[in-house]
Amino acid sequence: LGVGVQVNKKLGIPARAPTVPPIDCKSNPPAYTFIQGWQLLSLAVSLFVPKNSRLLWYLKLHLSRNADSKTECGKYAAYCERALERTMQNGGRETKPSRMEVLSILLKNPYHHSLPHAIPVHMMNSTYQVVSF
After folding, report:
1. How far apart are CA 66 and CA 88, in angstroms?
2. 10 Å Cβ neighbour count for 88?
3. Which segments of the chain are extended strands (E)?
4. In the CATH scheme, what is the code of domain 30-132?
5. 28, 73, 77, 79: least CB-packed within 10 angstroms?
6. Where is the MyTH4 domain (predicted)?
7. For residue range 84-133, what is the model confidence (pLDDT) as tens digits?
8. DSSP string spanning 20-48?
9. What element of type H or E holds 58?
């Protein structure tokens, strides 16, 4: 299975294609990979809504099952739910997100702010103010 057998015509012996090492199902991926996946999804749901109603239904189900204010991934899921609802009401975007929008999602969890994107602005007197948009 998954291993192709070819015959070396010059030598007349079968040559096996290189095999991919099996994935260890018992090891879990690092936690940051889940966060990165949620960050990507939080960018995507604010850009467009799936046209396929079945895919949209599964997406909503996935978000509602994972939304939880106690975990970092759950907070991203809750944000994605809100962002998806806004996108469904307002329609998809016609322009790509700005660099600042992308950075604001990558640098902090947008769940913690009422507006979807926020950037800390550091002042000269060593204070900062969060600007939301």
Report:
1. 20
2. 13
3. 5-8, 13-16, 118-122, 128-132
4. 1.25.40.530
5. 28
6. 1-106
7. 999 999 998 889 888 888 888 888 777 776 565 667 788 899 888 877 76
8. PPPP-TTSPPPHHHHHHHHHHHHHHHTT-
9. helix 53-66
3-class DSSP assignment, residue 14: strand
Going from N- to C-terminal start, the domains of the chain cover 30-132
Q: In angstroms, rounded to a whole number, what is the distance separating the alpha carbons of residues 3 and 20?
A: 9
Residues 6+ apart with CB under 8 A from 93: 46, 47, 48, 87
Residue 39 carries which side chain, given as an amino acid letter? Answer: Q
Contact 87, 51 (CB under 8 A): no
Query: Two tokens at 67?
Result: 């939304």
What amino acid is encoded at 80 in this protein? C
User: Which amino acid is present at 100?
Assistant: M
Total H helices, total E strands in the chain? 4, 4
